[in-house]
C-alpha cells in the first residue's frame, strides 16, 4: 500500500521508466567542466522548458526531497534527531524489504552513481554510518550508536556502568516508571526488564529466543546491554538494503573505486559541500552586457547576500542553477583553467531582456 501511494513520486516514476534501460546506457562520460552529459533527459509534462540541464538538476533535487520525506519509506530519520542531535539526518530504513523495495534501493544506488558522473551534488543528509557501510568500513559500536540513537546509547551505558544489584533494581524501577519494564516473576512487586527492545521502526523484538520470558538480572545485565547494542548495529548496517544500494551504484561506477575513498570523501563526492563560500562565488562571477562589479545595484546585490544565512544562500543557489549544493570537485578550486568550471560557477549576471529605458 505504501509503495502504491508513492507511485506518482518523481523517484518511482523514474525507477519504472528506467527499469528496462541497460545500466551501460546510464554510464555517460565523467563531467569535466561546463554542463556535463546527462544519463537521461527529463521532460515535465505540460511545461515548456528549454534545454536539459535545469530539468535534470531540478529532478535530482526533487527526488532528494521525496527521499527525505514521508512520501517514500526508504530512508528513516535517525532516532537521535528527536532529541536535537544530528537533527535532520537520515539512515536507510532498517526493516525486511520486499522485492519492489529492493528494486527502489537499487535505483537509489544508481542515482548516487549518476550524480557522481554528472558532478551534480545531491542534497542528501545521511549519517556517517551510511557512508562507512557503503565504502566497506566497519562501524564503531560506541561512536556510531551515539550518533544514530543517543537515547539507546545512554540506556545501554546505564546497564554497563551498574556497580551492584541495588543500582540495578533502582534502574529497573526507573524504567518501569517509563512503562518499559514488567514485574519480576520471582518477586511480583519488584520491577524488572525482559530481553526485548524496540527497533528503530518501533517494533518490539526479542533479543534472544524466548526473550520475553527472560528477566534481566545481575548475572546477565551485560549480555542484555550487548544484545541491544548488537541490534542497533545490525539496523545501522542494514545488509539487505545496503546490498541493493551497492549493486545499483556498482552498475554505474566501479565499486573498486570505493576502496580508495574515505567515508567523508565519498559523501563529499556524492553530496558536495553543504555550505556556500560567498567569497569564492563572488570571485567566480562574470558580468555581462556592460555590467561591472562597481555598479551600485551590483554592490547592493552582494551586500544583500552577505546577510543571508546558509539556508538562504542554498535557496539562492537553487534559484540560480537548480541545485542547492556546491560540487566538491570543482576544477577551478585546484587552479585549473577558467573553462573547467562546473555549475554554479561561473555565476553570470546580466541585465534583464528588454531593459532599455529601465
UniProtKB/TrEMBL annotation:
GO terms for molecular function: ligase activity; ubiquitin-protein transferase activity. GO terms for biological process: glucose homeostasis. The keyword Calcium does not apply. Residues 42-328 form the HECT domain. Pfam families: HECT. Keywords: Ligase, Transferase, Ubl conjugation pathway. InterPro entries: HECT_dom (IPR000569), Hect_E3_ubiquitin_ligase (IPR035983), HECTD4 (IPR043366). This is HECD4 ligase. It comes from Calonectris borealis. The gene is Hectd4_0.
